[in-house]
Amino acid sequence: MAALDLFLNNKFSDALASLQAKTKDSMYHALTYATILEMQAMMTFDPQDILNAGNTMKEAQATCQKFRKKSTVADSINNLVHRQSLEHFTEEEIHAEICYAECLLQRAALTFLQVWIPVWLFWRGEEKSDENMVSFIKGGIKVRNSYQTYRELDSLIQSPHYVKGENHLHFEGGVKLGVGAFNLTLSMFPARILRLLEFVGFSGNKEHGLLQLQEGASSYSFRSVLCTMLLLCYHTFMTFVLGTGKGNVEEAERLLKPYLARYPKGAIFLFFAGRIETLKGNIDAAVNRYEECCEAQQYWKQFHHMCYWELMWCFTYKRQWKMAFFYADLLSKENTWSKATYIYMKAAYLSMFGPDDCSPFGDSKVELFR
């Protein structure tokens, strides 16, 4: 938990250093260390960061494997006929199962990202298209194995034979995180795709997913902050981006309040605070939050880029075209998520400049639109 506090206080390198020494001997240290690197990879989209995070997550999975219940050949044959009963596992072994399932899920996410990167580079004209179906199938298998493990662990919690161990809150929090994330994510798929996924054994219920995540967020477990972040993402981003319904801004504020009080300079929470103010229409307050977020840390520049994107739109809402152009220009120079989008936005803002406004040197809206 000390490493988590360091991370949430923007001391990212200190958090990684405190975890690294125990990654070979502790499943939770290994998982947390790999998760931080995965978050970095997801923000940078850098192929080397993705490869590094994938290798680290694979090592974390190997560490978790050491603590899982050992099976004999006879056990393996029996498991082909009857599902393995989790009721006879030790507390350490069921914790190993939940950590192993998380590793599988996160490795799958990185696999899908690795498949997407070549396609993305192709459209940028930097690489030939090679979608690598083998990697995609491997990712799908990891997702399914993770999903099945979460379902079995959830059944264990509901079982009358379940005995709570000393660290049961952390185990139960992990189950709620996984079950909640799967249900919520699957429920956002189009109905036709969801029916196909149900045919191969997946199911998603939005209300059940939200309930599981809410229970996980309110628990005092290691994963409560992850449940909170997922809910904040859903209420402030996913519902608006995917158009799947209205986000609950009041619920997002309630979830964020205790973390903002505990980590007043925490960049992650300042960013969500800015997003909430944006949704409430308090644009000046949102701008202040995003600027605070940028000032709070300098380790992950990619986090600044998320703020620049939001600031660009805030100044668009305020019709301050020069400031909006400034942030679009920063993104086009520093970030590689979507160069075409940034260039288009620069051209659009230049089109809004008045006759008395000085255009930035070297930029022409006609050339940019081309």
TrEMBL record:
Query: What keywords tag this UniProt record?
Result: TPR repeat
SUPFAM superfamilies per UniProt = TPR-like (SSF48452)
What superkingdom heads the lineage?
Eukaryota
| Pfam families xref list | Iml2-TPR_39 (PF10300)
Known InterPro entries for this protein? IML2/TPR_39, TPR-like_helical_dom_sf
Q: Which family does it belong to?
A: Belongs to the TTC39 family.
Provide the protein name: Tetratricopeptide repeat domain 39A
